[in-house]
TrEMBL record:
Belongs to the annexin family. This is Annexin. GO terms for molecular function: calcium ion binding; calcium-dependent phospholipid binding; phosphatidylserine binding. One of its GO terms (cellular component) is plasma membrane.
């Protein structure tokens, strides 16, 4: 359900690098060539391009792009071209080092921990240690106060089973445990953390479905009824990223676009992170939530090469 369009006949990494080299050398920069090449390559192809560019020209492609491009377009291209685990490690670091750490920052950690595969999360943790000489969990502990700290450490340090395995008896039992904790407003109870941070995503989706079937409301509705503080908000983001990540990212994009000004960082992060995963589903959810077309919303709120690059990742023919 990705929107990334990779051509059937892909040039060799060497050919791509030669065209990229031409695009960044001499007077001016050929932004259209950069968009056309990098915006139509998947993660493994981009990795080969980075490695080949380094071998051919003895310089980092990322560094060259950083020096040649500017603004939101540069940020988007560099985020897209960077190895995904390194990209997400850097995004997590920026979120944790931000002066203000509200839900906008903390949801970046949740997205990495709960809307990505277990293998990707493990690779992000390894990249984080290599880049910043400490663990992701250590920085969460030093940057985030309780009770949010306990929840974020639990989901960020998890390593879930990555296959579709569901036990309906466990789903029923754990739905009841979740309901009891929510009913008694003990949202940081160990039972909740254990369930949300250890069960595989398929098991959790079955548990959330059992919850609604058994108790009438969705788990999201019942947590919302407990209040609108940071604890409730964080748990709702975790559940949404596990249950319907496409809905979460549609809401992130909507919040970035709708209203006064544009939050380009959030818009870029959402499209770059999901273009190879589920942007087709995000497009459908965006229409369901906001009753307007995602592509039109993005083109209406962005411009120039930045707009063209995002729309390329969304599958438009630029």
């Amino acid at each position: 359900m990705a929107t990334l369009r990779v051509p059937e006949a892909v040039p060799s990494p060497t050919q791509d690098c030669e065209k990229l080299r031409d695009a960044v050398q001499g007077l001016g920069t050929d932004e259209k060539a950069i968009i056309w090449i990098l915006g139509h390559r998947n993660a493994s192809q981009r990795k080969k391009i980075r490695e080949t560019y380094q071998q051919l020209y003895n310089e980092s492609l990322i560094d060259r792009l950083n020096s040649e491009l500017s603004g939101d377009f540069r940020n988007a291209v560099i985020l897209w071209t960077t190895d995904p685990p390194k990209r997400d490690a850097e995004l997590a670091y920026e979120a944790l080092k931000a002066k203000k750490k509200g839900m906008k920052q903390l949801q970046v950690i949740v997205e990495i921990a709960c809307a990505s595969s277990p293998n990707h999360l493990q690779e992000v943790r390894q990249a984080y240690c290599s880049l910043f000489d400490c663990s992701l969990e250590e920085d969460i502990v030093s940057a985030v106060s309780q009770p949010l700290r306990k929840i974020l450490v639990a989901v960020a340090s998890s390593y879930r089973y990555d296959k579709e395995l569901v036990d309906m008896n466990v789903a029923d039992s754990e739905a009841a445990k979740l309901h009891e904790a929510i009913k008694s407003n003990k949202l940081d109870q160990d039972d909740i953390l254990l369930i949300l941070s250890t069960r595989n995503f398929h098991q959790l989706r079955a548990t959330f479905a059992c919850y609604k079937q058994s108790f009438g409301n969705s788990i999201d509705q019942d947590i919302k009824s407990c209040g609108n503080g940071d604890l409730e908000s964080l748990l709702r983001v975790i559940i949404k990223c596990i249950d319907t990540p496409e809905k979460h990212f549609a809401e992130v994009i909507g919040a970035a676009i709708i209203g006064f000004g544009t939050d380009e960082d959030s818009l870029t992060r959402a499209i770059v992170a999901r273009a190879e995963i589920d942007t087709m589903k995000i497009r459908g959810e965006y229409f369901n939530i906001f009753k307007t077309n995602l592509d039109g919303a993005v083109t209406g709120d962005t411009s120039g090469d930045y707009k063209d690059f995002l729309m390329t990742l969304l599958g438009a023919r630029i």
